[in-house]
Amino acid sequence: MTARRAVGVRLPYPEVPARVRAWVDATLGSPVTSWVEQVGGMSPGCATRVVTADGGRAFVKAVGSVLNPDSPTLFRRERDVLTLLGEHPLWASLRAAYDEDGWVALLLEDVAGGHPDLTDDQQMADLLAATDRLSETLRGFAVPAGPRAVTLGDPGLIDVYERFRRWTTALDHLDELPADLAPAEVRRDPAGLRRLVALLAGDEVQLTHWDVRVDNLLRPAPGRIVFVDWGAAAAGPAWTDPLLARFERVEDPWFDDSLTLSPALAEAGDDVVTAFLVAFGVALAWESTRRHPDVGLPTLNEFRRSEARRALTGAARRLG
What we know:
Structural class: alpha+beta
CATH superfamily of the largest domain: Aminoglycoside phosphotransferase (APH), C-terminal lobe
Low-confidence stretches: 146-154
Order of helices and strands: HEEEHEEHEHHHEEEEHHHHH
Strand order of the largest sheet: 1-2-3-5-4
Mean pLDDT: 91
CATH architecture of the largest domain: Alpha-Beta Complex
Strand content: 15-25%
Helix content: 25-40%
Number of helices: 11
Number of strands: 10
Largest sheet: 5 strands, antiparallel
Number of domains: 2
Shape: globular
Radius of gyration: 20 Å
């Protein structure tokens, strides 16, 4: 089975502040009597399937700034995006939200089933088809162009092009990266890499999930994929979600062969895909060397390293 990419250290539901749990009970109209904690993802807050005394079910995620100062912002972004999106079979819908005294909680539709096995060719094919449908569906939500206009209000969408520009600055530190993260094929032509990464520019903008990975996918039935965790929702080019859907196999030549199956990736072109892998991998690798504290996220830096290694392994193959 596919291993979860990000496994954080989460707060158990009984340790969530009593006022938040009381809100859950009141919103559901019946007290929570049992719960099952979920793993995966990097938030230090709870991620819990709950069952109420009258048999109701829901998914609760809650985090406070005391656990991590940035995580509440992600939850607020997810709240705003899911409010915009409404209900759809492609994602778990938002039922209610709580935001008081530094704690943010989301009450979501409980989607049955576990994560898909992306080592299985059919389940991967299901994901690719679902991601194409997701991208087409999200295109129907108007997102104005421009880094200052791309907002849904506080905290707003991530600006993908601004993220690309930030990643590019990490190329200044290419010679400082550990050899186990950055293969020789990536290191040998810094000037060429800069020209390549310059391709990550443009003005095409649509709403994107921007965090398509196995931790954020559920498979409630054969052939069906549901996208969860919209805290990284972004405005950017249409090819980003289809690329991220394939990232599970970025170290395998299958990744390269699969690109033609996506109209958005085929239109973007091979060089743009390689540029993304280089910029993403170098940025993560450089970030992992800076040794700054990740409050409440003790496994995050190893996640950066593993994803950097995978991205740059794929980039090295393509550059080679």
